[in-house]
Amino acid sequence: MNKETLSELHRIFQEVQSKPDWKSALDTLFVSLRGSFVFDNVAVYLSDRQTRGLDIVYARAMGRGKTAEADAAWGENAANDVIFNEHMVIHGPAKGSDRKDRMSQTYLLGIPLYIGSKLRGALLFVRFGGPEYSETHIHVASLQAIWAAALLERKELQEARAELDSVQRQMRLQDDFVSTISHELRTPLGFIKGYSTSLLRQDTTWDDATQREFLIIIDEEADRLTKLIEDMLESARLQSKTIQFKFSPIRLDALVRDVTARVRTHHPALEVDLKLSAVSPVLGDGVRLSQVLENLYSNAIKYAPGSKIKISLAEKNKKVRVSFIDEGEGIPEEFIPFLFERFYRVPGERTVTGTGLGLYICKQIVMAHHGNIWVESVLDRGTAFFIELPVSPTL
Ligand code: ADP
To answer: Checking phi first, is residue 380 left (phi over 0); if not, alpha (psi -120 to 50) or beta?
Structure first.
């Protein structure tokens, strides 16, 4: 190998390695070696570890037949051949094919892909109308196969790593949840028990005002317990997808007004600014969508106490967007990606009670509506939740 070839290989190696993702790394690998090895299309077939079927994980058209890029089925038989026989295959055009029609003159080269020493797939090249593959071409193609396999292995490792991280995070959340939930269950129970025992004491008499005060506490704590249990059941049902949604065209302006009126009966001092422009109805389950808004209200009251709340509606591209904005303390940026996860609560000293289920429930409901929910927050300025729902199709 001469010096120029070596330095060229070195340059290509560095360029491939520098790509942020495996697809652009494969692009660079195939494009940059085209000087030594010309082909029209390339595709990577991998056997699925679960189904054992063949998946096309990468396909690219370079020369003739560019439009064939999406349809990489051209190499499937040859890929199966490679995997079944565990060796390279070279197929010329079928006998009797029309020599004048270059596209029907397919020259296929298939090379086995070994990932982690196991045969996992095939790298397929096609040339329309030839020429046949020379020994040098086969060497370059084999080098690309080894290289592609290494990139695919890295991809699979990254995916496995991400999955592991997510499972670990979920396990940590479950652990935290057990301690949160036992605290959350014990606190209201403690109040209920304490105040009812006091009321029942025979050695003391309480005046009417005190008795009433105790009963209000018991009543409120019983409500808190009910809500907690409902949230737990609801999140379990949403997770197992056993909830039946009842969809009908819903006017969100009316729904927002109703929920706001309900919330205000419990929080008369709450300042709410509604900007409910006329928007098309969405196809939704009114009860569930009210639940989403109630959760957002309850969070704003808990985490942005005393703040004004602004709710507005807007319609764009056949979607209605609800903006729910408070002027509270905001949420640090690093916690934002996890807010909608089950059991997730922003870490730190916390006097506010909660289980980390509210936003998870909101997200599951919105997703069941084929919608989207996300949050933007600026520290010391406030938090904005956005919900986007598709407009109801006209009958
Ligand atoms: P919970 O309120 O039970 O903790 P949620 O899923 O409703 O659970 O909320 C998750 C976390 O998001 C909360 O623990 C809180 O830290 C944060 N959060 C939610 N809404 C707001 C808000 N409006 N302002 C600041 N933080 C919020």
So the answer is: left
The whole-number average pLDDT for the span 256-276 is 96
Pairing mode, if any, of strands 319-326 and 382-390? antiparallel
CATH class given for the domain over 248-390? alpha beta
CATH node for 163-240: 1.10.287.130
What number of H helices and E strands is found in the chain?
8, 12
For 273, counting Cβ atoms within 10 Å of its Cβ (0-12 exposed, 13-18 middle, 19+ buried), the class is exposed
User: Which fold is adopted by the domain 3-156?
Assistant: Beta-Lactamase (3.30.450)
Residue boundaries of the structural domains of the chain = 3-156, 163-240, 248-390
pTM of the model: 0.64
**Predicted confidence band of residue 350 (pLDDT cuts 50, 70, 90):** low
pLDDT for 135-179, tens place per residue? 999 999 999 999 999 999 999 898 999 999 989 988 888 888 788
- Whether 346 is in the pocket of ligand 1, judged by its Cβ within 6 Å, is yes
Ligand 1 touching residue 328 (CB < 6 A):
yes
Give distance in angstroms: CA of 298 to centre of ligand 1. Answer: 9
Q: How far is Cα 352 from Cα 305, in angstroms, rounded to an integer?
A: 11
391 DSSP assignment:
B
